[in-house]
Amino acid sequence: MNEEKVSPKVIWSIVAAAILGFSGILTETSMNVTFPELIQQFNQPMGTVQWLTTAYLLVVALMMLTSAHFNAILSKRQTYMIGLIAFVLGDVIAIVAQNFWLLLLGRLIMAVGTGFALPLVFNIIFTSVPMSQLGKYMGFGTLIISLAPALGPVYGGVVTYTLGWRAIFMIVLPVVIISLLIGWFNLDNQKPKSKNQFAYGQFALIGISLVSAILALGKLQSGKLTATIIILALVAIIAMAGFIKVANNAENKLVDISVFRSKAVVMALLIYATSQVINLAVNFAVPQYSQLTLGTTTMIAGLILMPGSLLGSIVNPIYGAMYDRLGANKPLTWGSLAFLAIMIIFSVMAPSIATIGLTVVYALFTVARNLTFSVAMTAGVAEVKPQQAGDINAIFNTVQQFVGAVGTTVAALFIQTTGTTKSAIATQTATGFSHLIVFSTVIVAISLIWLVIFMKNKTAK
Protein backbone atom coordinates (compact mmCIF):
# COMPACT_ATOMS: atom_id res chain seq x y z
CA MET A 1 0.00 0.00 0.00
CA ASN A 2 1.27 3.44 -0.93
CA GLU A 3 2.26 5.21 2.27
CA GLU A 4 -0.20 8.07 1.83
CA LYS A 5 -2.99 6.32 -0.09
CA VAL A 6 -5.80 4.09 1.09
CA SER A 7 -7.19 1.60 -1.43
CA PRO A 8 -10.92 1.62 -2.34
CA LYS A 9 -11.20 -1.95 -1.04
CA VAL A 10 -10.07 -0.81 2.42
CA ILE A 11 -12.53 2.09 2.37
CA TRP A 12 -15.42 -0.19 1.37
CA SER A 13 -14.36 -2.72 4.02
CA ILE A 14 -14.58 0.01 6.63
CA VAL A 15 -18.03 0.91 5.30
CA ALA A 16 -19.30 -2.70 5.41
CA ALA A 17 -18.17 -3.34 8.98
CA ALA A 18 -19.36 0.10 10.08
CA ILE A 19 -22.85 -0.51 8.63
CA LEU A 20 -23.16 -3.72 10.65
CA GLY A 21 -21.97 -1.88 13.75
CA PHE A 22 -24.36 0.95 12.86
CA SER A 23 -27.27 -1.50 12.77
CA GLY A 24 -26.38 -2.81 16.22
CA ILE A 25 -26.19 0.65 17.76
CA LEU A 26 -29.31 1.79 15.88
CA THR A 27 -31.43 -0.92 17.49
CA GLU A 28 -29.83 -0.25 20.89
CA THR A 29 -30.47 3.50 20.87
CA SER A 30 -33.94 3.14 19.33
CA MET A 31 -35.06 0.87 22.17
CA ASN A 32 -34.62 3.56 24.83
CA VAL A 33 -37.67 5.49 23.62
CA THR A 34 -39.82 2.33 23.69
CA PHE A 35 -39.34 1.59 27.40
CA PRO A 36 -42.52 3.27 28.69
CA GLU A 37 -44.54 1.20 26.17
CA LEU A 38 -42.64 -2.03 26.92
CA ILE A 39 -43.20 -1.51 30.66
CA GLN A 40 -46.95 -1.53 30.04
CA GLN A 41 -46.99 -4.31 27.44
CA PHE A 42 -44.85 -6.79 29.37
CA ASN A 43 -45.87 -5.59 32.85
CA GLN A 44 -42.25 -5.21 33.94
CA PRO A 45 -40.73 -2.36 36.01
CA MET A 46 -38.16 0.10 34.62
CA GLY A 47 -35.41 -1.68 36.58
CA THR A 48 -36.11 -4.86 34.58
CA VAL A 49 -36.80 -3.34 31.17
CA GLN A 50 -33.57 -1.31 31.25
CA TRP A 51 -31.69 -4.63 30.97
CA LEU A 52 -32.60 -4.60 27.28
CA THR A 53 -29.93 -1.90 27.01
CA THR A 54 -27.69 -2.74 29.98
CA ALA A 55 -27.34 -6.46 29.25
CA TYR A 56 -26.93 -5.74 25.54
CA LEU A 57 -24.03 -3.36 26.19
CA LEU A 58 -22.48 -5.77 28.69
CA VAL A 59 -22.45 -8.63 26.14
CA VAL A 60 -21.03 -6.30 23.48
CA ALA A 61 -18.28 -5.36 25.94
CA LEU A 62 -17.43 -8.99 26.67
CA MET A 63 -17.36 -9.88 22.98
CA MET A 64 -15.05 -6.97 22.25
CA LEU A 65 -12.55 -8.46 24.68
CA THR A 66 -12.25 -11.40 22.31
CA SER A 67 -11.57 -9.23 19.26
CA ALA A 68 -7.77 -9.29 19.59
CA HIS A 69 -7.88 -13.11 19.67
CA PHE A 70 -10.20 -13.46 16.69
CA ASN A 71 -8.23 -10.86 14.71
CA ALA A 72 -5.19 -13.11 15.20
CA ILE A 73 -6.82 -16.33 13.96
CA LEU A 74 -9.56 -15.27 11.52
CA SER A 75 -9.61 -13.26 8.34
CA LYS A 76 -11.48 -9.98 8.41
CA ARG A 77 -14.22 -11.50 6.26
CA GLN A 78 -14.62 -14.46 8.62
CA THR A 79 -14.86 -12.18 11.64
CA TYR A 80 -17.45 -10.09 9.82
CA MET A 81 -19.58 -13.10 8.83
CA ILE A 82 -19.71 -14.45 12.39
CA GLY A 83 -20.93 -11.06 13.54
CA LEU A 84 -23.51 -10.79 10.78
CA ILE A 85 -24.97 -14.28 11.35
CA ALA A 86 -25.33 -13.67 15.10
CA PHE A 87 -26.93 -10.28 14.51
CA VAL A 88 -29.51 -11.61 12.04
CA LEU A 89 -30.39 -14.59 14.26
CA GLY A 90 -30.95 -12.34 17.29
CA ASP A 91 -32.91 -9.86 15.20
CA VAL A 92 -35.34 -12.55 14.03
CA ILE A 93 -35.85 -13.78 17.61
CA ALA A 94 -36.60 -10.20 18.71
CA ILE A 95 -39.16 -9.83 15.92
CA VAL A 96 -41.15 -12.91 16.97
CA ALA A 97 -40.69 -12.54 20.77
CA GLN A 98 -43.98 -12.90 22.64
CA ASN A 99 -42.61 -12.15 26.10
CA PHE A 100 -39.96 -9.94 27.66
CA TRP A 101 -37.44 -12.70 28.31
CA LEU A 102 -37.45 -13.96 24.73
CA LEU A 103 -36.98 -10.38 23.55
CA LEU A 104 -34.03 -10.06 25.93
CA LEU A 105 -32.54 -13.30 24.54
CA GLY A 106 -32.77 -11.94 21.00
CA ARG A 107 -31.09 -8.72 22.08
CA LEU A 108 -28.23 -10.63 23.71
CA ILE A 109 -27.58 -12.66 20.55
CA MET A 110 -27.65 -9.44 18.51
CA ALA A 111 -25.10 -8.04 20.95
CA VAL A 112 -22.70 -10.85 20.02
CA GLY A 113 -22.91 -9.69 16.39
CA THR A 114 -22.37 -6.06 17.31
CA GLY A 115 -19.45 -7.07 19.52
CA PHE A 116 -17.73 -8.60 16.50
CA ALA A 117 -18.54 -5.74 14.12
CA LEU A 118 -17.47 -2.64 16.07
CA PRO A 119 -13.84 -3.64 16.81
CA LEU A 120 -13.50 -4.85 13.23
CA VAL A 121 -14.10 -1.31 11.95
CA PHE A 122 -11.17 0.07 13.90
CA ASN A 123 -9.00 -3.00 13.33
CA ILE A 124 -9.28 -2.41 9.58
CA ILE A 125 -8.32 1.23 10.10
CA PHE A 126 -5.39 0.50 12.43
CA THR A 127 -3.92 -2.19 10.16
CA SER A 128 -4.60 -0.67 6.73
CA VAL A 129 -4.41 3.12 7.08
CA PRO A 130 -1.13 5.09 7.36
CA MET A 131 -0.54 6.92 10.66
CA SER A 132 -0.63 10.28 8.86
CA GLN A 133 -4.31 9.67 8.00
CA LEU A 134 -5.33 7.84 11.16
CA GLY A 135 -7.41 10.72 12.54
CA LYS A 136 -9.18 11.20 9.21
CA TYR A 137 -10.23 7.57 8.87
CA MET A 138 -11.05 7.20 12.55
CA GLY A 139 -13.40 10.12 11.97
CA PHE A 140 -14.76 8.45 8.82
CA GLY A 141 -15.48 5.16 10.58
CA THR A 142 -16.89 6.93 13.61
CA LEU A 143 -19.11 9.07 11.34
CA ILE A 144 -20.93 6.04 9.96
CA ILE A 145 -21.31 4.40 13.36
CA SER A 146 -22.32 7.62 15.11
CA LEU A 147 -25.18 8.13 12.66
CA ALA A 148 -26.89 5.31 14.58
CA PRO A 149 -27.38 7.23 17.84
CA ALA A 150 -28.33 10.22 15.69
CA LEU A 151 -31.08 8.30 13.92
CA GLY A 152 -31.85 5.71 16.61
CA PRO A 153 -34.12 7.72 18.93
CA VAL A 154 -36.21 9.27 16.14
CA TYR A 155 -36.21 5.96 14.24
CA GLY A 156 -37.40 4.12 17.34
CA GLY A 157 -39.91 6.84 18.17
CA VAL A 158 -41.46 7.14 14.70
CA VAL A 159 -41.48 3.41 13.98
CA THR A 160 -42.94 2.52 17.38
CA TYR A 161 -45.57 5.26 17.10
CA THR A 162 -46.66 4.24 13.59
CA LEU A 163 -45.88 0.51 13.20
CA GLY A 164 -45.09 -0.84 16.66
CA TRP A 165 -41.74 -1.68 18.27
CA ARG A 166 -41.26 -4.98 16.39
CA ALA A 167 -40.83 -3.03 13.16
CA ILE A 168 -37.59 -1.60 14.61
CA PHE A 169 -36.04 -5.02 14.03
CA MET A 170 -37.80 -5.74 10.73
CA ILE A 171 -36.69 -2.58 8.95
CA VAL A 172 -33.02 -3.01 9.89
CA LEU A 173 -32.68 -6.35 8.03
CA PRO A 174 -32.33 -4.80 4.53
CA VAL A 175 -29.58 -2.54 5.88
CA VAL A 176 -27.67 -5.61 7.05
CA ILE A 177 -28.09 -7.23 3.62
CA ILE A 178 -26.55 -4.14 1.98
CA SER A 179 -23.65 -4.45 4.40
CA LEU A 180 -23.24 -8.11 3.43
CA LEU A 181 -23.05 -7.31 -0.28
CA ILE A 182 -20.38 -4.66 0.29
CA GLY A 183 -18.40 -6.72 2.76
CA TRP A 184 -18.33 -9.99 0.83
CA PHE A 185 -16.61 -8.43 -2.16
CA ASN A 186 -14.20 -6.14 -0.32
CA LEU A 187 -13.18 -7.58 3.04
CA ASP A 188 -9.81 -9.31 3.09
CA ASN A 189 -10.21 -13.08 3.36
CA GLN A 190 -6.55 -13.86 4.09
CA LYS A 191 -6.32 -15.82 7.30
CA PRO A 192 -3.51 -14.80 9.70
CA LYS A 193 -0.78 -17.39 10.31
CA SER A 194 -1.05 -17.06 14.10
CA LYS A 195 -2.08 -20.14 16.09
CA ASN A 196 -3.09 -18.06 19.10
CA GLN A 197 -5.08 -20.05 21.69
CA PHE A 198 -8.09 -18.47 23.34
CA ALA A 199 -7.49 -17.52 26.98
CA TYR A 200 -10.65 -19.05 28.45
CA GLY A 201 -9.60 -18.55 32.08
CA GLN A 202 -8.86 -14.86 31.59
CA PHE A 203 -12.13 -14.35 29.73
CA ALA A 204 -14.08 -16.08 32.52
CA LEU A 205 -12.43 -13.95 35.21
CA ILE A 206 -13.06 -10.62 33.55
CA GLY A 207 -16.55 -11.70 32.52
CA ILE A 208 -17.41 -12.57 36.14
CA SER A 209 -15.96 -9.24 37.26
CA LEU A 210 -17.91 -7.08 34.81
CA VAL A 211 -21.20 -8.93 35.24
CA SER A 212 -20.92 -8.86 39.05
CA ALA A 213 -20.16 -5.13 39.00
CA ILE A 214 -23.24 -4.34 36.91
CA LEU A 215 -25.47 -6.59 39.03
CA ALA A 216 -24.20 -4.92 42.22
CA LEU A 217 -24.89 -1.49 40.75
CA GLY A 218 -28.38 -2.52 39.67
CA LYS A 219 -29.20 -3.84 43.15
CA LEU A 220 -28.69 -0.33 44.54
CA GLN A 221 -32.20 0.53 43.32
CA SER A 222 -33.43 -0.87 46.64
CA GLY A 223 -31.82 2.14 48.33
CA LYS A 224 -30.04 -0.08 50.84
CA LEU A 225 -26.51 -1.49 51.05
CA THR A 226 -27.47 -5.17 51.29
CA ALA A 227 -25.32 -8.26 51.81
CA THR A 228 -25.99 -9.22 48.18
CA ILE A 229 -24.53 -5.95 46.93
CA ILE A 230 -21.43 -6.33 49.11
CA ILE A 231 -20.88 -9.92 47.96
CA LEU A 232 -21.28 -9.01 44.29
CA ALA A 233 -18.87 -6.08 44.68
CA LEU A 234 -16.29 -8.32 46.37
CA VAL A 235 -16.67 -10.94 43.63
CA ALA A 236 -16.12 -8.22 41.00
CA ILE A 237 -12.97 -6.94 42.73
CA ILE A 238 -11.50 -10.40 43.38
CA ALA A 239 -12.21 -11.59 39.83
CA MET A 240 -10.63 -8.46 38.33
CA ALA A 241 -7.56 -8.85 40.56
CA GLY A 242 -7.32 -12.47 39.45
CA PHE A 243 -7.58 -11.48 35.81
CA ILE A 244 -4.80 -8.91 36.14
CA LYS A 245 -2.50 -11.40 37.88
CA VAL A 246 -3.13 -14.17 35.34
CA ALA A 247 -2.90 -11.83 32.33
CA ASN A 248 0.41 -10.41 33.52
CA ASN A 249 1.99 -13.86 33.86
CA ALA A 250 0.38 -15.70 30.95
CA GLU A 251 2.12 -16.32 27.64
CA ASN A 252 -1.23 -16.42 25.89
CA LYS A 253 -3.05 -13.18 26.74
CA LEU A 254 -6.67 -12.27 26.14
CA VAL A 255 -5.49 -8.68 25.77
CA ASP A 256 -2.09 -7.17 26.42
CA ILE A 257 -2.67 -5.11 29.58
CA SER A 258 0.94 -3.91 29.56
CA VAL A 259 -0.42 -0.91 27.65
CA PHE A 260 -1.61 0.39 31.02
CA ARG A 261 2.00 1.00 32.04
CA SER A 262 1.64 4.24 30.11
CA LYS A 263 -0.01 6.92 32.27
CA ALA A 264 -1.06 8.72 29.12
CA VAL A 265 -3.00 5.65 27.92
CA VAL A 266 -4.72 5.30 31.30
CA MET A 267 -5.71 8.98 31.37
CA ALA A 268 -6.92 8.94 27.76
CA LEU A 269 -9.04 5.91 28.62
CA LEU A 270 -10.48 7.65 31.70
CA ILE A 271 -11.40 10.74 29.63
CA TYR A 272 -12.98 8.46 27.02
CA ALA A 273 -14.88 6.45 29.66
CA THR A 274 -16.14 9.55 31.48
CA SER A 275 -17.63 11.07 28.32
CA GLN A 276 -19.23 7.75 27.37
CA VAL A 277 -20.81 6.93 30.73
CA ILE A 278 -22.41 10.38 30.87
CA ASN A 279 -23.51 10.14 27.24
CA LEU A 280 -25.35 6.85 27.77
CA ALA A 281 -26.87 8.03 31.05
CA VAL A 282 -28.24 11.19 29.42
CA ASN A 283 -29.37 9.32 26.29
CA PHE A 284 -31.34 6.96 28.51
CA ALA A 285 -32.77 9.67 30.74
CA VAL A 286 -33.91 12.24 28.18
CA PRO A 287 -36.59 10.06 26.48
CA GLN A 288 -37.92 8.93 29.88
CA TYR A 289 -38.14 12.55 31.11
CA SER A 290 -39.70 13.63 27.83
CA GLN A 291 -42.46 11.02 27.92
CA LEU A 292 -43.10 10.62 31.64
CA THR A 293 -42.71 14.28 32.73
CA LEU A 294 -43.37 16.37 29.62
CA GLY A 295 -46.00 13.94 28.33
CA THR A 296 -44.65 13.67 24.77
CA THR A 297 -45.15 10.74 22.42
CA THR A 298 -42.36 8.29 21.54
CA MET A 299 -41.95 10.13 18.25
CA ILE A 300 -41.38 13.52 19.90
CA ALA A 301 -39.03 11.93 22.44
CA GLY A 302 -36.91 10.66 19.55
CA LEU A 303 -37.02 13.98 17.72
CA ILE A 304 -35.67 15.80 20.79
CA LEU A 305 -32.44 13.79 20.50
CA MET A 306 -32.12 13.90 16.70
CA PRO A 307 -30.60 17.39 16.10
CA GLY A 308 -27.86 16.86 18.66
CA SER A 309 -27.08 13.35 17.45
CA LEU A 310 -26.90 14.50 13.82
CA LEU A 311 -24.61 17.38 14.75
CA GLY A 312 -22.45 14.96 16.69
CA SER A 313 -22.10 12.73 13.65
CA ILE A 314 -21.26 15.64 11.34
CA VAL A 315 -18.49 17.00 13.57
CA ASN A 316 -16.70 13.65 14.09
CA PRO A 317 -14.65 13.82 10.85
CA ILE A 318 -13.87 17.47 11.64
CA TYR A 319 -12.58 16.44 15.04
CA GLY A 320 -10.48 13.70 13.44
CA ALA A 321 -8.89 16.19 11.05
CA MET A 322 -8.37 18.56 13.99
CA TYR A 323 -6.35 15.87 15.76
CA ASP A 324 -4.24 15.24 12.64
CA ARG A 325 -3.48 18.96 12.41
CA LEU A 326 -3.19 20.05 16.05
CA GLY A 327 -2.44 16.91 18.03
CA ALA A 328 -4.33 15.91 21.17
CA ASN A 329 -3.81 18.71 23.71
CA LYS A 330 -5.80 21.56 22.22
CA PRO A 331 -8.86 19.55 21.06
CA LEU A 332 -9.07 17.70 24.38
CA THR A 333 -8.76 20.94 26.37
CA TRP A 334 -11.34 22.77 24.28
CA GLY A 335 -13.71 19.80 24.38
CA SER A 336 -13.38 19.23 28.14
CA LEU A 337 -14.00 22.87 29.04
CA ALA A 338 -16.94 23.14 26.63
CA PHE A 339 -18.38 19.88 27.99
CA LEU A 340 -18.21 21.17 31.57
CA ALA A 341 -19.75 24.52 30.64
CA ILE A 342 -22.71 22.84 28.90
CA MET A 343 -23.24 20.45 31.81
CA ILE A 344 -23.38 23.38 34.25
CA ILE A 345 -26.02 25.06 32.07
CA PHE A 346 -27.88 21.75 31.81
CA SER A 347 -27.84 21.38 35.62
CA VAL A 348 -29.36 24.83 36.11
CA MET A 349 -32.12 24.19 33.56
CA ALA A 350 -32.83 20.51 34.31
CA PRO A 351 -35.44 20.83 37.08
CA SER A 352 -38.00 22.43 34.75
CA ILE A 353 -36.54 22.28 31.25
CA ALA A 354 -39.14 22.13 28.45
CA THR A 355 -39.06 20.44 25.04
CA ILE A 356 -37.33 23.16 23.00
CA GLY A 357 -34.77 23.93 25.69
CA LEU A 358 -34.05 20.22 26.11
CA THR A 359 -33.49 19.85 22.35
CA VAL A 360 -31.06 22.78 22.20
CA VAL A 361 -29.09 21.87 25.32
CA TYR A 362 -28.82 18.23 24.24
CA ALA A 363 -27.44 19.35 20.87
CA LEU A 364 -24.76 21.48 22.57
CA PHE A 365 -24.05 18.61 24.97
CA THR A 366 -23.41 16.20 22.09
CA VAL A 367 -21.13 18.53 20.11
CA ALA A 368 -18.96 19.24 23.17
CA ARG A 369 -18.88 15.68 24.44
CA ASN A 370 -17.94 14.21 21.03
CA LEU A 371 -14.75 16.28 20.85
CA THR A 372 -13.33 14.74 24.04
CA PHE A 373 -14.66 11.28 23.18
CA SER A 374 -13.31 10.95 19.63
CA VAL A 375 -9.92 12.56 20.25
CA ALA A 376 -9.31 10.61 23.49
CA MET A 377 -9.38 7.23 21.72
CA THR A 378 -7.11 8.36 18.88
CA ALA A 379 -4.72 9.93 21.38
CA GLY A 380 -4.64 6.72 23.42
CA VAL A 381 -3.93 4.56 20.36
CA ALA A 382 -1.07 6.88 19.36
CA GLU A 383 0.69 6.13 22.67
CA VAL A 384 1.22 2.40 22.02
CA LYS A 385 3.38 0.36 19.65
CA PRO A 386 1.82 -0.60 16.29
CA GLN A 387 1.76 -4.29 17.27
CA GLN A 388 -0.41 -3.37 20.28
CA ALA A 389 -3.05 -1.65 18.14
CA GLY A 390 -5.40 -4.65 18.30
CA ASP A 391 -5.14 -4.80 22.08
CA ILE A 392 -5.70 -1.10 22.68
CA ASN A 393 -8.61 -1.19 20.20
CA ALA A 394 -10.20 -4.07 22.14
CA ILE A 395 -9.66 -2.30 25.46
CA PHE A 396 -11.14 1.03 24.37
CA ASN A 397 -14.14 -0.60 22.69
CA THR A 398 -14.78 -2.89 25.66
CA VAL A 399 -14.62 0.03 28.08
CA GLN A 400 -16.94 2.04 25.83
CA GLN A 401 -19.65 -0.61 26.02
CA PHE A 402 -19.15 -1.48 29.68
CA VAL A 403 -19.34 2.09 30.92
CA GLY A 404 -22.34 2.52 28.62
CA ALA A 405 -24.01 -0.28 30.60
CA VAL A 406 -22.94 1.49 33.80
CA GLY A 407 -24.38 4.79 32.54
CA THR A 408 -27.71 3.19 31.70
CA THR A 409 -27.89 1.46 35.08
CA VAL A 410 -27.01 4.68 36.94
CA ALA A 411 -29.66 6.62 35.01
CA ALA A 412 -32.26 3.96 35.87
CA LEU A 413 -31.26 4.27 39.55
CA PHE A 414 -31.86 8.02 39.49
CA ILE A 415 -35.12 7.76 37.53
CA GLN A 416 -37.12 5.45 39.76
CA THR A 417 -40.85 5.91 40.07
CA THR A 418 -43.04 4.51 42.81
CA GLY A 419 -46.08 6.69 42.18
CA THR A 420 -49.35 5.29 40.88
CA THR A 421 -50.68 8.47 39.24
CA LYS A 422 -49.32 10.23 36.17
CA SER A 423 -48.69 13.38 38.23
CA ALA A 424 -46.63 11.50 40.82
CA ILE A 425 -44.64 9.65 38.17
CA ALA A 426 -43.98 12.91 36.31
CA THR A 427 -42.70 14.63 39.46
CA GLN A 428 -40.47 11.71 40.49
CA THR A 429 -39.02 11.44 36.98
CA ALA A 430 -38.24 15.18 36.86
CA THR A 431 -36.52 15.05 40.26
CA GLY A 432 -34.45 12.02 39.32
CA PHE A 433 -33.51 13.56 35.97
CA SER A 434 -32.34 16.77 37.64
CA HIS A 435 -30.23 14.88 40.18
CA LEU A 436 -28.68 12.78 37.40
CA ILE A 437 -27.58 15.88 35.46
CA VAL A 438 -26.01 17.45 38.57
CA PHE A 439 -24.20 14.19 39.35
CA SER A 440 -22.94 14.00 35.76
CA THR A 441 -21.66 17.58 35.94
CA VAL A 442 -19.53 16.70 38.97
CA ILE A 443 -18.05 13.71 37.07
CA VAL A 444 -17.17 15.94 34.09
CA ALA A 445 -15.41 18.38 36.44
CA ILE A 446 -13.37 15.54 37.94
CA SER A 447 -12.32 14.41 34.45
CA LEU A 448 -10.31 17.64 34.08
CA ILE A 449 -7.80 15.98 36.42
CA TRP A 450 -7.37 13.13 33.90
CA LEU A 451 -6.75 15.72 31.18
CA VAL A 452 -3.95 17.47 33.10
CA ILE A 453 -2.18 14.19 33.88
CA PHE A 454 -2.55 13.05 30.26
CA MET A 455 -0.94 16.19 28.88
CA LYS A 456 1.99 15.85 31.28
CA ASN A 457 2.70 12.23 30.29
CA LYS A 458 1.84 11.85 26.63
CA THR A 459 4.63 11.06 24.16
CA ALA A 460 2.77 11.27 20.83
CA LYS A 461 1.70 14.51 19.17
CATH arch. level architecture of the largest domain = Up-down Bundle
By CATH's scheme, which homologous superfamily of the largest domain applies? MFS general substrate transporter like domains
- Helix amount: over 70%
Instruction: Output the number of helix runs.
Output: 17
Please report which band the strand proportion falls in: under 5%, 5-15%, 15-25%, 25-35%, 35-45% or over 45%.
under 5%
Sketch the topology as an H/E string, one letter per element: HHHHHHHHHHHHHHHHH
Rg is 21 Å
Instruction: Assign the structural class, choosing from mainly alpha, mainly beta, alpha/beta, alpha+beta, or little secondary structure.
Output: mainly alpha
Low-confidence stretches: none
CATH topology of the largest domain: Growth Hormone, Chain: A
Task: Give the CA-based shape.
Answer: globular
Provide structural commentary.
This protein is mostly helical. The protein folds into two domains: 8-188 and 254-457, Growth Hormone, Chain: A (Up-down Bundle), CATH 1.20.1250.20; 199-253. It has helices spanning 8-31, 35-42, 46-49, 51-65, 67-73, 76-96, 100-128, 134-162, 167-186, 200-219, 227-249, 263-292, 298-326, 329-349, 355-381, 389-414, 422-457. The longest helix is centred in the C-terminal third of the chain and has 36 residues, at 422-457. The protein is globular, with a radius of gyration of 21 Å. The mean pLDDT is 86. InterPro entries: MFS, MFS_dom, MFS_trans_sf. Keywords: Membrane, Transmembrane, Transmembrane helix, Transport. The chain crosses the membrane at residues 12-35, 55-74, 81-102, 108-126, 138-161, 167-187, 199-218, 224-244, 265-286, 298-319, 331-354, 360-382, 394-415, 435-455.
